[in-house]
């Protein structure tokens, strides 16, 4: 893909005071590049400098081979559309009127919409699933609808570069996913380049083609999601000292409960995840095993369990792991077994279940009572 936006040695800040320096990045059409980093790291400052809201303190930004300083306002608006976090509150403007503002780079100084302009506005509203809101006053719509209408306004500009600052802020899960689906469609079908900032690391990990990390006054790590979203690095980037970030699952976990394990969990194949979370919420330290290191729940249990007994991938549970699990199980007050399927690789977990049952320690799982600490039918 051909590079569309280039920043080289860029320094950005306010009132001649740098916030980030020596920034380099390349963005191609048909790709999504996402800025991540802690609050105050300068993500929005980078975006404001790219869209000419702030003048760079040093370095250069080129758009389609031309310095951004050399574009007229009208020509720059035809190349670049912006959706920032601020919400306009226009008096008596319909959703159609707000979206139509995106056509003004094409309408001339009188702002008169042609038949073709009106068609493009309606098409943009349909694309963001707000066609039925065309005649509704903008101020009477929900946060999710407002964000999509502002995106429709940006689409009306027919941009080659779309810049968004925290576009999913204040949206519920449904509307976050809908908005990101629209962005992906713009990238795939219209070959738009997208530069945005996101706080939600799980979404950034899933939608981004490339990720830039604002860190210590510059861009730290940069690369594909698989190169950036590494557990220790994310913990360092955000200063996580208690808890952890699970890279394969894309969400943070609370700190584990300290103390000697009271409960032994026989899990695997994802069956244990809700149990681990329930025990953690209830403040009950637990041990778990035997879990293969490539199991879908391994990162979760490793983050939350006082001790987890692992086994290497694609190997049957071995004697050493089994004996350690048996020792822990016998020392615990109770045993939980969310695992229902046993096969060649985890057959010895069935033996652990028999041992726990024989000792009278097996308890029923009551996830609906986990908040009161009664997950085990006992306190």
What would the keywords be for this entry?
379 residues; alpha/beta; Rossmann fold; 2 domains; six-stranded mixed beta sheet; four-stranded antiparallel beta sheet; elongated
Overall description:
The chain is an alpha/beta fold. The chain folds into 2 domains: 236 residues, 3-Layer(aba) Sandwich (Rossmann fold), CATH 3.40.50; 119 residues, NAD(P)-binding Rossmann-like Domain (Rossmann fold), CATH 3.40.50. Strands 6-7-8-3-9-10 form a 6-stranded mixed sheet, sandwiched between helices. The chain is elongated and about 85 Å long. The N and C termini lie far apart (61 Å). The model has no long low-confidence stretch (mean pLDDT 88).
Topology:
Blueprint: E1 3-14, E2 17-28, E3 32-36, H1 43-50, E4 58-63, E5 66-67, H2 73-79, E6 80-83, H3 95-100, H4 104-107, H5 115-127, H6 143-156, E7 161-165, H7 173-190, E8 193-197, H8 201-207, E9 210-215, E10 218-223, H9 225-228, H10 231-238, E11 244-246, E12 251-253, E13 263-265, H11 273-282, E14 286-292, H12 298-304, E15 307-311, H13 319-331, E16 334-336, H14 347-358
Parallel strand pairs: 3-8, 3-9, 6-7, 7-8, 13-14, 13-16, 14-15
Antiparallel strand pairs: 1-2, 1-4, 4-5, 9-10, 11-12
Helix pairs in contact: 5-6, 13-14
